[in-house]
Specification:
Blueprint lengths: L5 E7 L7 E6 L3 E6 L5 H19 L3 H7 L9 E3 L4 E4 L12 H5 L1 H12 L1 E2 L13 H11 L4 E13 L3 H9 L4 E4 L2 E4 L11 E12 L5 H14 L3 E6 L5 E5 L36 E5 L1 H4 L22 H12 L13 H9 L1 E8 L6 E8 L2 H11 L3 H8 L2 E5 L15 E2 L5 H5 L3 H9 L7 H23 L16 H15 L5 E5 L7 H16 L3 E5 L3 H6 L2 E6 L8 E6 L1 H6 L3 H7 L17 E7 L7 E6 L3 E5 L6 H18 L10 E3 L6 E5 L12 H4 L2 H10 L2 H6 L23 E4 L7 E4 L10 H4 L8 H5 L3 H7 L4 H12 L16 H13 L7 E6 L7 H16 L3 E5 L3 H4 L4 E6 L8 E6 L1 H5 L5 H9 L1
Parallel strand pairs: 3-19, 3-20, 5-18, 18-19, 24-30, 24-31, 26-29, 29-30
Antiparallel strand pairs: 1-2, 1-4, 6-17, 7-10, 7-11, 8-9, 8-10, 11-12, 13-16, 14-15, 20-21, 22-23, 22-25, 27-28, 31-32
């Protein structure tokens, strides 16, 4: 029987889908497109992927399934021909600081293996190559260094491994040894002795204990032989008095200073393992240091009036009593300005001190003894940050700290031993700091520099590393370095890294579902991405891509267009077929692709208000000491290939400077020389793609503060007034009106130890979040829960008579989000949607006419029609005299800008220069800029 040719979905009704039937060809590249909110994700993720996930869990044993609860079956009649599903979404990256590009792609794991097996060790004291000793040399060293001392000679057996080791102790005992050293303590072996099997242990067997002098030479020789035999060529000598171990080895040791490295393991190079991680920063590369400017922001205020922020104003507490003692000792008053306090006294207040002194009491004429025993405010904050149980106290302490590069490992995350293993003069940290392009060329020429033995060991590892590096280049990420943390990646970058990892796993017969992989990609890199997807398809996989990008739609084997509108106006298949067939249809998508509809280029560009902000000498990350002028009162677009330095220039340099100037922000900008023209703006707003909330409790209504108005409105209804309900009754975050089973969440989170957490609807309130009494209060026939389930579009009509609410919901509708509901969990919003909600929240506030708006790729997840709507909103802002700065690849946005700043040429080390600035027409004339090449076709 021939494999089924189609994945068939019958009667899909999830969210806004209108009972649709779809036949999706298998082993093809299929694109699902349509307006934002038309139901593309509902079909791809909430129907097909959810059903695949559910069937996977069905294969578990009944025992495992009882912990998972029932995964809801998506609202669909039947799905046939479903392969195993892997979804690659934008929001799935790990936010842990320990996760880096190297660890996600597994390249770092192979590098660790390569260094553990093929690197040469050098001494960190003398930089000499490490040597190994003969038995005689070890004997001479012991006789010389431990003369007239009592020592114990030990053989290491277990190093940082888990287990109870009962059999090992029995075996040692049978060999005639009586003592072992377990985790640093020497103890006698007892019958049936065993350790905690879930903890890491170090175990050495005591071979002999002896006092060193000339007469024991023969015995020492035998002891060394036995120790090296038992300890696999490594032995350890402990001076009985100070218990400090010293290693001797037939393997790696520094010839002059005698330091020995334990044999390298892949763990030795891991910053996530205690064996490899720098002990000062625990392998994070950064430490938190207290910033005294945050502790004493203004030294003209007195201690009494809260000049020392962590202490607040003077109150009757032990700390203030101590500070009073210090003030008596150093003769100052707590009401003096902090700048007038003697230097020694301030030092004791901040860093602590310990002393006793006498003071004569004026009134009685008696001398009294005082004792200052004060740990200091700096130590106190440090202590709270490191040892407090509660997260809120930790957060409070962190507020006074800055993240700084760890001084011990200089941000390299590893112990110094690990950093002294080298292959052709490069240690593992040097490699992860190279961008992918550089790394690829380093690996090209490596064979010539390796010895024959190293070559044999490294052959397979090198093959794996090279293929993985190639995949990263294929998806357009050649500017990333392997040590880049995954939380600093944009949604599109994170998704493409996962894509590269998937291509690397070479699976066959899988259904991949991708959510807009082209986000944040320059047109130049788009072709590479599409080629990667085609490769994945040619291996024998089916690929479904939810996408708005025209190139991707053109290259697809099959295109579904979902519409015709968004939200309740969508949810139908308006066209299905090849790209050529799509062009013949009369759908919105087809109209834009064929050019029947288009986003018009403005007749004339804005001239601005003549004022400028000039940033000089910006040199953060890969910026090459650039100077840029931003004309105010215009719409400015910053373009350039991925990784060229756009975000560094704007988000990491310009925004923190403006923020610090206007709002006293404390984020440190990247290095720059000077900035001019700050006085021309009085408000700066950065609208990025970070989630608007991290919990299911936050939603568009709470974020834009619309919900506060709605609650007040409900509290004013007749029934609520009779019952005495206040606005708090209608909040799902406080006790009173909410359902207590799910504490107002509407869902219960079931923790799955080895799978992502699953959310199940609360069985008491059926996901309505409130208790029965609260839901009895109605406004125009709707309960508070009905209002939260209302789409923004419906809410705009519903609240037309309430101007305060109407203005806020209308701005959300104006940015093209009419299809989301007021109470939609913010964790389910895409990056682009979250960004537009922030934009709406800002638009509903009054602007000053001198506001500087910064938007990072606002067209993420937008259909051509939605881009037109969004650009109308942004144009309105610019027409009022505000400055709108957009970082963007989308050429429909670039062509509408008044002023374009193109950063390039390439990404990573080859980027960081300003190639050309001016109107889109001027930029398009540039000879070498990639943006110019693509822009020319549009203009």
């Amino acid at each position: 029987m021939k494999d089924q040719e189609y994945l068939e979905v019958y009667g899909a009704r999830v969210h806004n889908l209108k009972n649709i039937d779809v036949k999706i060809p298998r082993e093809k590249l299929v694109v699902i497109t349509g307006l934002s909110g038309s139901g593309k994700s509902s079909l791809a993720f909430d129907t097909i992927y959810a059903e695949g996930q559910r069937r996977y869990i069905e294969t578990f044993s009944a025992y495992a399934r009882q912990f998972l609860g029932g995964l809801e079956r998506p609202d669909v009649d039947k799905i046939d021909g479903l392969s195993p599903v892997i979804s690659i979404e934008q929001k799935t990256t790990n936010k842990s600081p320990r996760s880096t590009v190297g660890t996600i792609t597994e390249i770092y794991d192979f590098l660790r293996l390569l260094f553990a097996r093929a690197a040469d060790a050098y001494s960190y004291n003398t930089d000499q190559k490490m040597v190994s000793y003969s038995d005689d040399q070890i004997k001479d060293l012991i006789l010389k260094d431990f003369n007239d001392k009592k020592i114990a000679v030990l053989a290491p057996l277990i190093k940082s491994r888990k287990g109870h080791y009962r059999e090992l102790f029995e075996q040692i005992s049978k060999q005639g040894f009586l003592r072992v050293r377990v985790d640093g303590k020497i103890q006698e072996i007892e019958k049936g002795m065993k350790l905690d099997r879930y903890k890491m242990h170090d175990i050495e067997v005591v071979i002999d204990r002896l006092a060193i002098n000339k007469s024991v030479e023969k015995r020492l020789e035998e002891t060394i032989k036995t120790a090296l035999y038992s300890g696999n060529n490594i032995m350890m000598v402990i001076d009985v008095d100070d218990n400090n171990p010293r290693y001797f080895s037939r393997e790696l040791m520094c010839p002059t200073t005698g330091i020995a490295y334990p044999n390298p393991e892949p763990n030795t190079f891991s910053f996530n393992s205690p064996k490899g991680a720098c002990s000062a920063c625990n392998g994070l590369g950064i430490t938190n240091e207290i910033n005294l400017k945050k502790v004493i922001p203004n030294n003209l205020v007195s201690v009494k009036n809260g000049g020392i922020v962590p202490l607040g104003e003077q109150k009757n507490s032990w700390i203030f009593k101590q500070i009073e003692h210090i003030s008596e000792r150093y003769r100052f008053k707590l009401s003096d300005a902090i700048k007038d306090i003697p230097k020694e006294a301030l030092d004791i207040i901040l860093n602590g001190g310990n002393e006793s002194f006498e003071i004569e009491s004026k009134s009685v004429g008696v001398r009294r003894n005082y004792k200052i025993d004060f740990e200091g405010i700096v130590a106190f904050i440090d202590n709270q940050y490191n040892n407090a149980e509660s997260t809120s106290i930790k957060r409070w302490a962190k507020g006074f700290m800055d993240e700084v590069t760890c001084s011990s490992c200089e941000g390299k995350r590893l112990k110094k031993e690990a950093l002294h293993f080298k292959i052709t003069d490069k240690n593992i940290s040097d490699l992860v700091q190279m961008d992918v392009t550089e790394l690829a060329s380093w690996f090209e020429n490596i064979e010539k520099q390796l010895s024959k033995k190293q070559l044999i060991i490294a052959a397979e590892i090198l093959k794996e590393i090279r293929t993985r590096i190639q995949f990263l280049k294929d998806v357009g990420l050649d500017y990333l370095t392997l040590d880049r943390t995954s939380k600093s990646l944009s949604g599109g970058e994170a998704q493409r890294i996962r894509l590269a990892t998937q291509i690397g796993s070479q699976l066959v017969g899988v259904l991949y579902i991708l959510d807009e992989p082209s986000i944040g990609l320059h047109q130049r890199d788009n072709e590479k991405l599409i080629d990667s997807l085609v490769k994945l398809r040619d291996l024998g996989n089916s690929i479904i891509v939810v996408e708005h990008d025209q190139d991707m739609i053109e290259k697809a084997d099959f295109v579904f267009d979902i519409g015709p509108g968004a939200g309740k106006h969508g949810g139908e298949i308006v066209s299905a077929g090849t790209f050529a067939e799509l062009k013949k249809q009369r759908t919105l998508t087809a109209d834009y692709i064929t050019g029947r509809k288009k986003i018009e280029i403005p007749k004339k560009r804005r001239v601005g208000n003549g004022k400028t902000i000039t940033l000089k000498g910006a040199s953060g990350n890969n910026l090459k000491n650039v100077s840029v002028t931003f004309p105010l009162g215009k719409m400015i677009c910053v373009t350039g290939v991925s990784g060229s330095g756009k975000s560094t220039l704007i988000n990491e340099t310009l925004y923190p400077i403006l923020n610090a100037h206007i709002y006293r922000g404390v984020k440190k900008p990247m290095p720059y020389k000077k900035i001019e023209g700050l006085e021309h703006v009085d408000k700066v707003i950065d609208i990025d793609q970070s989630p608007i909330g991290r919990t299911p409790r936050s939603n568009p209504a709470t974020y834009t503060k619309t919900f506060d108005e709605i609650r007040s409105l409900f509290a004013k209804t007749v029934e609520a007034s009779i019952r005495g309900y206040k606005p708090g009754r209608f909040s799902f975050n406080v006790k009173g009106g909410r359902c207590e089973t799910c504490q107002g969440g509407g869902v219960r989170v079931i923790e799955m130890n080895f799978l992502p957490d699953v959310q199940v609807e609360c069985e008491t309130c059926q996901g309505k979040r409130f208790n029965r009494e609260t839901l009895e209060i109605r406004y125009k026939g709707k309960s508070i829960s009905d209002i939260l389930d209302m789409t923004i579009e419906d809410a705009t009509d519903f609240f037309i008579k309430i101007p305060k609410i109407h203005r806020k919901v209308k701005t959300i509708k104006d940015v093209g989000l009419g299809y989301i509901t007021l109470g939609q969990q913010s964790t389910t919003l895409s990056g682009g949607e979250a960004q537009r909600i922030k934009l709406a929240a800002e638009l509903s506030k009054r602007d000053t006419g001198n506001t500087f708006y910064i938007l990072d790729e606002p067209t993420t997840g937008l259909h051509f029609e939605d881009i037109r709507v969004l650009m109308d909103v942004l144009n309105t802002l610019a027409d009022k005299g505000n400055t709108v700065l957009i970082i963007e690849h989308n050429l429909d946005v670039v062509k509408l800008a008044d002023y374009v700043i193109d950063v390039g040429m390439e990404g990573g080390k080859k980027g960081g220069k300003i190639l050309v600035t001016g109107t889109p027409e001027e930029v398009a004339k540039h000879k070498t800029s990639y943006t110019a090449k693509f822009l020319k076709k549009l203009l």
